[in-house]
């Protein structure tokens, strides 16, 4: 399923980085070197943007993990500075414990069958006082989007969508993390992304993560966004509990 999804649904590249993650890495870059792992890295969009913006300048090791071999292949092509590992984020047994200073996971935890197990695995591979940047979606009871799977979903591959900030923050606290800061914001989806994915589904164009880099004029239309009713994103920076 994941390989089929990876081939049909690329993550379009752009250089946008959430301010919370940007500020976290800026502070780290001022103080020390660090190792970083991106869990559920997809095609490498986040790592590519971090590298291009100079936010990995003090990173001594950068690793991307994804369940899809196709996405890891794209990661290695896009980000030759990064190692790629094919693995399920709920089973990171091939990665030694206490290996990384920083883990990031952007919009991944809502896809996995066992979110507590994923957090326990992340805690194991982080060093003492290691840092986690993680984001996901919060859905109000009236949340509405174009996908249906036992109710409206923001993404057809979502296993769950959290109902409140408290639910997600408690999940982190109950699995070995201390929340340092968090924020929520409305979700706005680029209309052009929807159009492109529709054209890919109809086999009119081929999946290409670098589409916007190749067609600069079309990329300007990416700024047109549609607010998703009843949904918001939550970003959290947390630290491994002592």
From TrEMBL:
Keyword vocabulary terms for this entry: Methyltransferase, Transferase
Annotated Methyltransferase type domain residues: 38-134
GO biological process: one example: methylation
Pfam family, one: Methyltransf_11
Entry's transmembrane regions: none
GO molecular function ontology, one term from the record: S-adenosylmethionine-dependent methyltransferase activity
Entry protein name: Methyltransferase type 11
